[in-house]
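Data card: per-record layout.
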Amino acid sequence: MTDAWPGREGRRMARNKPAPAPAEYAHERDPYGDPYADPYAGDQLRGRGGYEQGYGRRRRRWPRVLAILLVILLAVTAGAYFYLDSRLKREAVLDQPGRLADTPGTNWLIVGSDSREGLDSADRKRLATGKAAGRRTDSMMLLHYGSGGTSLVSLPRDSYVPIPGKGSNKLNAAFAFGGPKLLVKTVEQATGVRVDHYAEIGLGGFVGVVDAIGGVDMCIKEPMRDPKAGLDLKPGCQTLSGAQALGYVRTRASARADLDRVERQRQFFGALMKKAASPGVLLNPVRSIPLALNGTGNFLVDEDDHLHDLARMMWAMKGVSGGNGVTTSVPIGGNGSAAGVGSYISWDKRKASALFEALKNDEKIPSSVISK
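The structure for this 372-residue chain is written out next.
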């Protein structure tokens, strides 16, 4: 075969010829098929910017890549939201006749029940929950937020109130007689405040949520020991596990019994929500994912409530625990007892009326009616 560049000069040119252009620029090669032509020569000849224009074309791919990534992120986020929302347990609680007309602001009835659902025999022994079947109310709180501020009001379970169709009895008897529906109607009738949302969590769910976020920090003023609640705490600031937290909010082994308990419940739930909404939990997949799964899998809400409603409730609870709201209990007037009812507590009618009137009108709670 004849050398394209004969002689010494041909050999020198052969040694110095450029490497072939990359395959992706084949369309830019010399129209006569020279494999060694400058791949950008066509651009230069056609006045399209040459090397700079080629770099610009590659750079303009990034907006499209970012747009695709954004769409994927939005799709994953939406999918996660609807999946978690579907895990919430729902019950038709608020859709019933004879309820109060709407009142300003937003009101949640938050209930901690003693349901043992999901607990096996080992769990019941470890948590000292006993073997009682069904579900009753261990705690009830009314969370209000609006233009008048945010407040968390404990409703002692031994409060003596009228229960529609059942006469007067302890507040937690309403739940035993007719479940969440009758409890909502009883609370509305006793307070004059319309309940807009309902949330309930059982014993196992409570423990799971606390453990999911790595426990909750509480400062214990004095030793607390209650074998019935599986509680044995020493004084000092410490992180309570799910089992310890359950005993802490359930024990009545103190001087004021249920009144001390509702105070601890408000303190603990506020601290729980504050930590659950903290960056250390929300931005940490090791904490946030178990929290989301435990929370949505164990909360029972009204049929019209959704995940974003629970998130708003959690944020309001965080605000209360951070000092941007009021925590109190219904003012107590005294004690009593009745046949078939046992010992109960009664509300201070004047102070309780002023408290609930403020909530009903979405106004600031008077300091004179705030109590522990």
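Known properties of this structure: The longest helix spans residues 61-87. The longest strand covers residues 137-146.

See the next section for split statistics.
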